[in-house]
Specification:
This protein is mostly helical. The protein contains eight helices and no strands. The mean pLDDT is 96.
């Protein structure tokens, strides 16, 4: 599923990841992380938020993705709060750099889509 998403096929990725969850309902956290990427890529920002909310780890990349999702949903107050939390937690982390280089998307349009949400969150 992850590879399908990186290749620009988020709907196929979600189908594969949903099947993986069906087969292994007690799956590791990275299933939800991968699903969050696919949901975001498909434009289902709420679905991505739900996947991210199941992850126990509070990491800079998680806060960046949550902020981008909320920004894309025009929930700018929440996006701003996640970015503020990110700055407190990891002041040297660059959300913009992560958006541009953190995921190996095959197509620049997929990178641009994620970076757009991150930039919108940063401007909130």
């Amino acid at each position: 599923g992850y590879l399908l998403c990186m290749r620009g096929r988020p709907f196929e990725a979600l189908a594969a990841l949903d099947e993986a969850v069906r087969i292994n309902p007690f799956h590791p956290d990275w299933y939800d992380y991968d699903r969050s990427i696919a949901f975001y890529s498909a434009g289902d920002y709420q679905g991505a938020i739900e996947c991210l909310s199941r992850l126990a780890v509070l990491a800079p990349w998680k806060l960046t993705r949550l902020a981008a999702c909320h920004a894309q949903l025009d929930d700018l107050a929440r996006a701003r709060n996640y970015m503020a939390e990110l700055r407190r937690m990891a002041p040297d982390f660059s959300p913009s750099q992560y958006a541009r280089t953190g995921l190996p998307f095959e197509h620049a349009s997929d990178t641009d889509h994620f970076a757009e949400g991150v930039e919108k969150a940063l401007a909130a």
